[in-house]
Automatic annotation (TrEMBL):
UniProt domain PH: residue ranges: 28-127
Domain of life of the native organism: Eukaryota
CDD domains found in the cross-reference section: PH_AtPH1
Signal peptide bounds: none
Annotated protein name in UniProt: Pleckstrin domain-containing protein
Length: 156
């Protein structure tokens, strides 16, 4: 699913900046570090460098990320429903999961502290991006409500 999300979001763009929708993943990430990720089709575990920035979780083969780097994949945080510990599911220490409507992806951090920091960072990003959608809906609802019936009872 992550690969299909990647293809649907980034298709055939040519430059890294164009492919990432203007996200400069190579500088000042909200969080970056090594995680072990389970493959989408072949369920092997691979160590990847992850970068969380502007509502997108990118992963790379190595930690030397530059403007020319090509991400191996991306998860749009707005599509995520939950992020939580998954040691009991995988029977592995420092494991956590990210769930979307379509799939659940599994990751393993190097330490308990790193696992908690990733869960907190991704969780904050999910809330931040879902809040901006919810706020826009409330503003639209409130402005429609005010237009339909002014508070002083006058006709529009």
């Amino acid at each position: 699913m992550a690969a299909s999300l990647w293809r649907s979001v980034f298709g055939g763009s040519t430059s890294a900046a164009e492919e990432e929708g203007g996200v400069a993943f190579w500088s000042n990430p909200e969080r970056a570090g090594w995680l072990t990720k389970q493959g989408e089709y072949i369920k092997t575990w691979r160590r990847r460098w992850f970068v969380l920035k502007q509502g997108k979780l990118f992963w790379f083969k190595d930690s030397h990320v530059t403007r020319a780097s090509a991400p191996r994949g991306v998860i749009p945080v707005a599509s995520c429903l939950t992020v939580k510990g998954a040691e009991d599911v995988l029977n592995r220490p420092f494991a956590f999961e990210i769930s979307t409507r379509a799939e659940t992806m599994y990751f393993i951090a190097d330490t308990e502290k790193e696992k908690e920091e990733w869960i907190n960072s991704i969780g904050r990003s999910i809330v931040q991006h879902s809040r901006s959608l919810a706020d826009a809906e409330v503003v639209d609802y409130e402005s429609t409500k005010r237009t339909a019936k002014p508070p002083d009872g006058d006709q529009i």
